[in-house]
Amino acid sequence: MTELTKMKLAEARDALRKGDVTSVELTEACLKAIEGADALGAFVHKTPEIALEQAKAADARIKAGDAPAMCGLPIGVKDLFCTKGVPSQAASAILEGFTPEYESTVTSQLFGAGAVMLGKLNMDEFAMGSSNENTCYGPAVNPWKRTGDDAKLTPGGSSGGSASAVAADLCLAATGTDTGGSIRQPAAFTGITGIKPTYGRCSRWGIVAYASSLDQAGPMTKDVRDAAIMLQAMCGHDPKDSTSADLPVPDFEAMLTGDIRGKTIGIPKEYRVEGMPEEISKLWDDGAKMLADAGAKIVEISLPHTKYALPAYYVIAPAEASSNLARYDGVRYGHRAKLSQGEGINDMYEKTRAEGFGLEVQRRIMVGTYVLSAGFYDAYYNRARKVRTLIKKDFEDAFAAGVDAILAPATPSSAFGIGEMKTADPVQMYLQDVFTVTLNLAGLPGVAVPTGLDSKGLPLGLQLIGRPWEEGDLLNTAYALEQAAGFVAKPAKWW
To answer: 465 forms bridges with which residues in the sheet?
Structure first.
């Protein structure tokens, strides 16, 4: 039974259609694996009753011949997605006890396609973090370990629980969200595939907001084909989300030919940052050679405003967060602080937020409030918005010059130990996003693909950046890279 959990979405889908296995059997195998994996801290709200009910319904649909691609496939859902009747806390103590009476559009579409929800997954609080240490549940743990070292490693963040669960074969795939790299960085840290689609491709309705102009949902899967299958089920126009694009959703899986002959791949010189580890640099060069051997033309490009991306991001994202998180005050839902005799509503607001928000969330709210304040709005926020426009234009110029996709590292390092980077200087953690935030600022699609192991035996990933709305073409390039890299390594089970 345990071998069932190692299946990918595509092979499980085919096995279900052939009758080799049932969704109930597949779901029970995953539930058993989850029960034995508490050491990973990946699943924070388990939903076995819902899963088995959905699996039985999926089996009936498959038997009746009414089975979309995701039908009967067990997945995990990041705790940022509101799921009807199931705790949806965004890993924050301030939302303790909150069970929505509605379903997010993305999970509605997945469940409508017959997907099975095994439970909710750990994450950084309100998606703020790069290590899954900022969470009311305790950190999620990477199933990978360094060779000869027993230290627990981060799975990355904020979608760390999703990455850990998929890499450890607790579920066949998982939902993630990406505001500055929160799908791609954890995917790279755990040796899986993660795609952040174009902003507006997936509805944000029912996903707890961090930074509304940057957040985007996407799948985290075991390979590129699975990412194509799941992304198609997650996409589509949603009238409830004013930023949702009314565009047809292509058959992403059908576009996976692996043929990239004649494609032009850009290598941005600005991404060769000072102090880049030799292993990351070599991985990047090897990836470019793999794509060249597959028939692509490799050209050096310039994205001149890259160096301003990280500071611009850490102005815009906290500014939007300070506005979005103002709704958590203890009045209507979630945690409410106990008041002493004579204390009023302002005391309740202050106490509730002090008790409910973690330190990183408090830090970003304070930064955001500061940059939006009357004396600093133009100096910080408006200037960051102008920089964002320039970053977007850099990409537009590259694509206009004939570049089809851009190849870059996904992360500046392999996974680090839990607690290793939790220093008094949060900027060190923020630098984890150095290669990923540009896409969110420009609204572009990006996919992380595992392509090798470092000297410590940990996975390393490369990132491909595509033209807006051309996820199919981007996934095909990623498929060619995946085929050439031949990454099949799995973590040795210790949990």
So the answer is: 406, 446
Catalytic one of 108, 182, 203, 244: 182
pLDDT digits (tens, 9 = 90+) for 82-139: 999 999 999 999 999 999 999 999 999 999 999 999 999 999 999 999 999 999 999 9
Catalytic residue selected from 78, 120, 222, 351: 78
Tell me the two tokens of residue 77. 């859902």
Tokens of 159: 């979608």
At 66, give phi and psi (nearest 5°): -110, 75
Task: Give me 60's structure tokens.
Answer: 């009936």
379: its two tokens: 């100096």
Please tell me the distance from the alpha carbon of residue 150 to that of residue 216, in angstroms, as a whole number: 35
β-strands 173-178, 74-78: how paired? parallel
Marked catalytic residue, from 158, 164, 203, 413? 158
Per-residue model confidence as pLDDT tens digits over 225-258: 999 999 999 999 999 999 999 999 999 999 999 9
Give the 3-state secondary structure of residue 362: helix
SS (H, E, C) 390-438: HHHHHHHHHHHCCCCEEEEECCCCCCCECCCCCCCCCHHHHHHHCCCHH
156 and 184 in contact (C-beta within 8 Å)? Answer: no
Q: Give the span between the Cα atoms of 128 and 364, in whole angstroms.
A: 8
**Structure tokens given for 121:** 């997954």
Determine how many CB atoms are found less than 10 A away from the CB of residue 411. Answer: 27
d(CA 208, CA 114): 23
Q: What is the mean pLDDT of the chain?
A: 96
- Residue 455 burial by Cβ neighbours in a 10 Å radius (0-12, 13-18, 19+): exposed
In the numeric block, which tokens belong to residue 203? Answer: 């509805």
Helix, strand, coil % in the chain, rounded to nearest 5:
40, 15, 45
What is the token pair recorded at 365? 């709210």
**Neighbour count for residue 96 (Cβ, 10 Å):** 14
The CATH number corresponding to 2-256+478-485 among 3.40.50.300, 1.25.40.10, 3.90.1300.10, 1.10.10.60 equals 3.90.1300.10
Q: Is 78 a catalytic residue?
A: yes
Write the pLDDT tens digit of every residue in 349-374.
999 999 999 999 999 999 999 999 99
- Alpha-carbon distance of 448 to 192, in angstroms, equals 8
Are 440 and 196 in contact, with CB atoms under 8 Å apart? yes
- Residue 340: active-site member: no
- For the chain, which residues make up each domain, given as ranges? 2-256+478-485, 307-384
- pLDDT, tens only, 446-466: 999 999 999 999 999 999 999
